[in-house]
Write a structure and sequence with these properties.
Length: 98
C-alpha cells in the first residue's frame, strides 16, 4: 500500500509539531495515528485524529476525533483498514476542518 493510494478506514501515523507554552521547549513533537476519511483535491487527504496529544490539555481545537488535512508525504506508517475502521471513517467527526 502506498501513501498516494490510501483508502477510507486506513490508519496512518503522522508526525506533529505542537506549539506549547514552555519557554525551555516551545515545540513538542508527537507521532499520532489518523484515520483516513477521504482523498480530496490535489492528492491531499482528510482524516480524523485517533490519538490524544500528550503535550497539551484536552481542547476543542486539536484532540482525538478532530478532522484534519494531510498530504501523502506526511505519512510515516500505514495500517490497512478493516470493516470497523471503514465504518468509523463514515462517522461525523467531533469537529470538521474548515
Amino acid at each position: 500500500m502506498s501513501r498516494e493510494s490510501l483508502q477510507p478506514g486506513d490508519l496512518v501515523k503522522l508526525i506533529f509539531r505542537i506549539s506549547i507554552d514552555d519557554p525551555d521547549e516551545p515545540v513538542a513533537v508527537e507521532r499520532m495515528w489518523v484515520l483516513v476519511r477521504k482523498q480530496v483535491e490535489g492528492g491531499q487527504y482528510l482524516g480524523i485524529l485517533d490519538n490524544d496529544p500528550s503535550a497539551v490539555a484536552e481542547n476543542d481545537e486539536f484532540w482525538s476525533g478532530i478532522e484534519l488535512p494531510f498530504a501523502p508525504h506526511h505519512v510515516i506508517d500505514i495500517e490497512p483498514g478493516d470493516q470497523n475502521t471503514r465504518a468509523l471513517a463514515d462517522k461525523e467527526p467531533k469537529r470538521r476542518w474548515l
